[in-house]
Amino acid sequence: MKSRPSAQVFRPRSNALVVVFGAFMVVVVAGTATAVILYANSAFVTGVGETLQQPVPFSHQHHVAELGIDCRYCHADVDRSAVAGVPPTSTCMSCHSQLWTHAQMLEPVRESLERDEPLRWNRVHDLADYVYFNHAAHVNNGVGCESCHGRVDRMPLARQIQPLTISSCPDCPRHPRPRLAPAPPTPPLRAPPPPAPPLPRLVSVPPVPPPADHPPSPPPRDHPPPAASTARRPPRARACAPPPCTGRPPPPRHTP
Fold first, then answer.
1. Model pTM?
2. Which of 157, 58, 50 has the alpha carbon at shortest distance from 108?
3. What span, in angstroms and rounded, lies between the C-alpha atoms of 116 and 239?
4. What pLDDT is stored for residue 199 in this prediction?
5. What pLDDT score was predicted for residue 242?
6. Are 163 and 39 in contact (CB under 8 A)?
7. Over the Cα atoms of the chain, what is R_g?
């Protein structure tokens, strides 16, 4: 007994639909992954370029570039601790107790000192809780502040310029030389002596005129006159006078 052929369940174009659906799913998965990566690295998530509202509009450009204050004056623990830290209110008032003492923008600083409460600064560079970053290990090995924080001396208000993600950190240990600050020059074995101070400039003083009731003093002499000698000189020998002329020849001399 012959079996009867079964009816065709799928049409011939079903193979094309499977290929199209597979390609569509690949595009959806790839697009979703790309969107997630772009969103995670966007400024909305990383905070790049964002300026946060602070209790005091502190300008790094004014204090660092214009006044020449070193970073370690405020961030005193940056080269000896894992955390750079923020300055206490007493550090701010060491200058502003004499400068801009009645400025309205510094009112929170004065209130902080009176109440003995620290200022509540908003963190600009906020790492994830599972990230451990040691400032002292980087600063003491030549990594400059601008490598991560940028040129804060050109920022009126501090902002973040690096994403601070895991993708931006491994490149620094692999190629650290472009990010290292130049080493200071090696001093010579024997330092040269310091230059001698300049000699004081002589100022000619005019002579003081004598009083009117005194006669003028004689002009000074170059050499004093020699003192008169008190020793007696020996008498001079007197020459014998010739005999008077009588007109007669002199008598002959008798020789023995």
1. 0.58
2. 58
3. 122
4. 63
5. 54
6. no
7. 53
**Nearest alpha carbon to residue 145 among 128, 130, 162, 163:** 162
* Number of CB atoms found within 10 A of residue 194's CB: 6
Instruction: Extract the residue ranges of the chain whose pLDDT is less than 50.
Output: 189
Structure-block tokens of residue 178: 């472009």
Task: Express the helix, strand and coil content of the chain in percent, nearest 5 each.
Answer: 30, 0, 70
CB count in 10 Å sphere of residue 100? 12
Residue 164 is predicted with a pLDDT of 83
CA distance 20 to 252: 181
**Contact assessment for residue 82 and residue 134, using Cβ atoms and an 8 Å cutoff:** yes
Is residue 122 within 8 A of residue 158, CB to CB? The reply is no
With contact defined as beta carbons under 8 Å apart, do 162 and 48 qualify? yes
Q: Where are the alpha helices (DSSP H) in 65-134?
A: 71-74, 89-96, 107-115
Q: What is the DSSP letter of 255?
A: P
pLDDT of residue 36: 92
Query: Residue 109 in contact with residue 92, Cβ under 8 Å?
Result: yes
Residue with tokens 């240990």: 173
